[in-house]
Design goal:
The complex is a heterodimer of chains A (178) and B (509).
Chain A: H1 13-21, H2 50-63, H3 79-87, H4 92-112, H5 124-135, H6 140-158, H7 164-167
Helix pairs in contact in A: 2-6, 3-6
Chain B: E1 2-4, E2 10-15, E3 18-21, H1 27-36, E4 41-44, H2 59-66, E5 73-74, E6 80-82, E7 98-99, H3 104-112, H4 122-132, E8 136-137, H5 145-157, E9 161-163, E10 165-166, H6 193-199, E11 203-206, E12 208-217, E13 220-228, E14 234-242, E15 244-247, H7 250-261, E16 279-285, E17 300-302, E18 316-321, H8 325-329, H9 336-343, E19 349-356, E20 361-366, E21 372-377, H10 380-399, E22 404-407, E23 414-416, H11 423-428, E24 437-439, E25 469-471, H12 486-502, H13 504-507
Parallel strand pairs in B: 1-11, 2-14, 3-4, 3-15, 4-11, 6-24, 15-25
Antiparallel strand pairs in B: 5-6, 7-10, 8-10, 9-17, 12-13, 13-14, 16-19, 16-22, 18-19, 20-21, 22-23
Helix pairs in contact in B: 1-6, 1-12, 4-12, 5-10
The chains are: A mainly alpha (178), B alpha/beta (509).
The structure holds flavin-adenine dinucleotide.
Flavin-adenine dinucleotide (FAD) binds next to strand 12, helix 7 and helix 12 of chain B.
Chain lengths: 178, 509
């Protein structure tokens, strides 16, 4: 029976296996070590380690890039905490798939676009092109990975009060301590 | 008593006359009716117990709190997003409160083609349920600007529509229904049947996932369940001994539970015949801000393109749709600056969706890691019907005053002005993967019928192949309903509960 999973990652077969063996932060591919992320609200669940979180946030930055000078940077507001809040109840198997998906995005430029650098080391324009490749890929699984990551990015960023002036949203009617 | 499993790690044993699994439109009704009639009931719900005080109208909190997979479930190929509830009260906690009875031609089809008996008794159930949920017609002052504009647009085109009924009492018209009603006005199961079941003595366990049903001896059933912590991880066990078990876990989870239990598949139909009522959305950009996410989200309803008397098997309905930033962004095309180019118009955005009365079908079965494998494929006829639906949404939006309409094709999205017409939509069509499709009404995976060779449950919801185990949720619909389903689900559940009470002396042994 064909193995199918949440993101359908099983269909990428051998590439998936190789990538699963790689640490998210591989120094020989230009890894720079983890960036400490302070966005996590105290008390919120931490479901990703620092490096996975950093990689996710690099993807989020491209996904929600508005091009507006006054747009709040995703890392400076509660984006990550909101994403982790959504991930927390999903269960370890799904989180494992998310980690694999992150690695796929990180190393795809090296292995399949023959660039000298992982996703995080590309310029913003090259990152956007790489994501566009995921979005428009002929491989269903790549498109699924793109949309899963896009959904997380949109949830994390556009749920934050600081972003609402950009889109004219007045926010909830009731204000409760969060 | 309502017990929150997340605060009670440990091993528990319960014994009751009836064990109900799932607390949504089906389960809450069954539990309350049986408990009120004096039966000893245990109700298990895998989601958490949250009250209107917990609903803060913020998407990042409410989507994970109230929806399965934080609202990110899809079919196996990712083509259809599936939204359904995971909390005490089920999908009724975040639904949009349209109230419709099953259309008469559909009930006739169920009787004639699927040999479902005695559907006349459903009328009493409709009345009881509607009374309990405070169903009433939406009054004109409650119709928000987007719905009013769409009504005008439909009328200009000569399309038939109506202002629907809803189950809200004392609505403040905030519009946050899809994130749970913070005011307790929406008469979801959480504020109606669940408190009634509780008052009547039902023992309700939240954060308690039923894993399998053991049906070794007649009259003695055992439900094996897992207690979950706040992050959904196992931290305890529960076993319930009962004479009767009623599965109300919804059309995705109920067939999976039966599959895990090795039950209900003598016809080979368990988990099959999945209908989704798939929807496709067009987003209108209006000249002035509508702030269409405030106010009752859906009050108007266009039924011009469904004629069930003439053809009970096809057609589509048009319904307004508006969203908060995250939900709206997720329906828009692209990412980064392209997506922001659309989202920056949020206050001027108002959508219309086409919901398909689908003949297409799919299946639900256990995939790897016990996760659902949901398959669904549109037939060519249904693709065509959805394409027509999409054309109609665009035409109505223009007639309502939208200056431009966004059609979110994944590749080269369209932004159409009235002078462009809809020929390009006809040319591109609607295909899975080419344009986002969404379902909020999965149904029919344990269909009801008179013939045990072609259906999973009999006319009253009991498994054809195992006495004393019933299904009372949206999975029993023999065909696609072709209308919003919460009232029909609740009424069928009420009818199943009345049947269990009538047969009680026999069922208990
Ligand atoms: C966004 C949205 C809007 C909607 N709007 C409308 C509307 O306006 N009008 C309308 O008529 N209908 C609407 N619906 C549909 C309506 O809410 C459903 O038809 C109805 O709630 C289905 O009832 P159910 O009992 O089959 O399932 P649900 O109400 O979904 O309840 C199933 C419950 O079972 C629980 N469960 C699942 N598996 C297990 C397990 N193994 N153990 C224990 N518990 C389990 C789930 O957590 C869930 O709480 C909407 C739905 C959605 C998602």
């Amino acid at each position: 029976m064909k193995r199918r999973t949440f993101l359908g990652l099983g269909t990428l077969g051998p590439a998936m296996w190789v990538l699963a063996q790689l640490p998210a932060r591989a120094a020989w591919l230009g890894g720079t070590g983890s960036t400490a992320l302070d966005a996590t609200v105290p008390g919120e669940p931490c479901v990703l380690d620092d490096d996975d979180a950093d990689l996710l946030m690099a993807i989020v930055e491209r996904m929600v890039d508005t091009g507006e000078a006054g747009a709040p940077p995703p890392r400076e507001i509660g984006t990550l905490a909101a994403i982790e809040g959504a991930l927390a109840p999903l269960g370890e198997a799904l989180l494992q798939e998310l980690r694999l998906a992150l690695r796929l995005v990180e190393y795809w430029p090296v292995f399949l676009e023959w660039r000298f650098g992982r996703f995080r080391s590309l310029s913003p324009e090259a990152q956007a092109r790489s994501l566009e490749g995921w979005r428009t890929s002929r491989i269903e699984t790549r498109r699924r990975v793109f949309y899963a990551l896009r959904n997380l990015a949109l949830l994390g960023y556009w749920s934050q009060d600081e972003t609402w002036p950009l889109i004219g949203y007045g926010g909830p009617w009731i204000r409760r301590p969060t | 008593m309502i017990t929150q499993g997340r605060t009670r790690p440990g091993v528990y044993r319960e014994s009751a006359e009836v064990c109900v699994i799932g607390s949504g439109a089906g389960g809450a009704v069954v539990a309350a009716e049986l408990a009120a009639a004096g039966r000893e009931v245990v109700l298990l719900e895998q989601g958490g117990y949250h009250t209107p005080n917990d609903f803060d109208q913020r998407e990042e909190h409410m989507l994970p709190m109230l929806f399965e997979n934080a609202g990110m479930s899809t079919t196996e190929d990712g083509a259809v997003g599936i939204l359904h509830g995971r909390c005490v009260g089920g999908s009724t906690v975040h639904n949009l409160a349209y109230c419709f009875r099953a259309p008469a031609p559909i009930l006739a089809l169920w009787e004639e083609k699927h040999e479902v008996r005695d559907l006349a008794s459903l009328q009493d159930s409709f009345e009881r349920v509607e009374r309990a949920l405070g169903v009433q017609r939406i009054i004109p002052e409650e119709v928000n600007l987007l719905n009013r504009k769409l009504q005008l647009g439909a009328e200009r085109l000569g399309y038939h529509g109506l202002v629907a009924k809803h189950n809200r009492i004392g609505c403040v018209r905030s519009g946050f229904c899809i994130l749970g009603c913070a005011y307790g006005s929406k008469q979801s199961m959480l504020v109606t049947y669940i408190p009634r079941a509780d008052r009547a003595g039902a023992r309700i366990w939240a954060d308690c996932r039923a894993d399998r049903i053991e049906a070794s001896a007649p009259g003695r059933r055992r439900v094996v369940a897992t207690l979950l912590d706040a992050r959904g991880r196992a931290h305890g066990e529960m076993e319930v001994e009962a004479s009767v078990v009623v599965c109300c876990a919804g059309a995705i989870a109920t067939p999976l539970l039966l599959e895990a239990s090795g039950l209900g598949n003598s016809s080979g139909q368990r988990g099959r015949n999945l209908h989704l009522h798939p929807t496709v959305i067009a987003g209108g950009i209006f000249e002035e801000p509508l702030h269409s996410y405030y106010g009752i989200p859906q009050s108007y309803y266009i039924d011009e393109f469904i004629d069930l008397e003439h053809d009970p098997r096809s057609g589509h309905i048009l319904m307004p749709i508006a969203g908060f930033p995250v939900l709206t962004a997720s329906t828009l095309p692209g990412f980064g600056r392209e997506l922001f180019g659309y989202l920056r118009d949020l206050p001027r955005l108002g959508g219309l969706l086409a919901l398909l009365h689908d003949q297409s079908s799919g299946s639900v079965e256990r995939g790897s890691g016990d996760r659902p494998r949901i398959r669904y494929r549109l037939t060519d006829e249904d693709r065509h019907e959805l394409m027509r639906g999409l054309q109609h949404t665009v035409e109505v939006l223009w007639a309502s005053g939208a200056e431009q309409v966004i059609v979110a094709y994944a590749k080269d999205p369209l932004v159409l002005r009235p002078e462009d017409g809809t020929a390009e939509i006809k040319q591109r069509g609607v295909r899975e993967g080419a344009i986002p499709l969404t379902s909020t009404h999965p149904q029919s995976t344990c269909r009801m019928g008179g013939d045990g060779k072609t259906s999973v449950v009999n006319s009253w919801g009991e498994l054809h192949d195992t006495q004393g185990i019933f299904v009372a949720d949206m999975s029993v619909f023999p065909t696609s309903l072709g209308a919003p389903p919460q009232i029909t689900t609740a009424a069928l559940a009420d009818r199943t509960a009345q049947h269990i009470l009538q047969r009680w002396p026999e069922l208990r042994t």
